[in-house]
Design brief:
CATH class: Mainly Beta
Radius of gyration: 16 Å
Order of helices and strands: EEEEEHEEEHHEEE
Distance between the termini: 35 Å
Shape: globular
Strand order of the largest sheet: 1-6-5-9-8-7-11
Strand content: 35-45%
Number of strands: 11
Helix content: 10-25%
Length: about 160
């Protein structure tokens, strides 16, 4: 399944605003260049557009996805239960390390949003950048095939 990179945000300061960008550079082992979290353990954070839409629908609200404070908004790829998988974004590769748990800031955006995003990885995912590169809004996003055992099984 192939998706798209819908939005890019960089954080100019810790707890600061999320600035939208049309393009960014992902640096292997570090994160998005120019982000306040550059070099942090959570190198890049991602939000699933479809999950965001579902959460808003259940709450009957429209909240800008930048309120989630993720770096990348992706569509057409499901982030839930993706720990260990590798996501290709343009020419960059990101290994998903885990789920990003929503915090009380979500309830500042809209009461009940934090609880709603606790379902099915609704708060998104975080990962490490394996291969860096320039990314741009509209880039293709896809999962790499899962690694499989290369031994052939013989049939009797």
């Amino acid at each position: 399944m192939q998706g798209r990179l819908r939005q890019i945000w960089l954080k100019r300061a810790h707890d600061g605003p999320m600035d939208p960008r049309e393009e960014a550079e992902l640096v292997a082992g570090k994160g998005p260049r120019g982000s306040a979290d550059f070099g942090a353990p959570r190198q890049v954070t991602l939000l699933d557009w479809e999950r965001w839409q579902e959460a808003q629908g259940r709450l009957g609200v429209a909240v800008d996805p930048s309120a989630r404070r993720a770096n990348l908004l992706v569509s057409g790829v499901r982030l839930a239960e993706s720990r260990g998988r590798i996501l290709r974004i343009g020419s960059a590769r990101v290994r998903i390390k885990g789920e990003t748990r929503p915090c009380e800031i979500m309830d500042e955006a809209h009461p009940g949003l934090m609880e709603e995003l606790k379902r099915d990885w609704g708060g998104g995912a975080y990962g490490e950048i394996l291969d860096g590169g320039a990314i741009r809004v509209g880039d293709a996003v896809s999962w790499e095939p899962a690694e499989t055992d290369s031994e052939e099984v013989s049939q009797p």
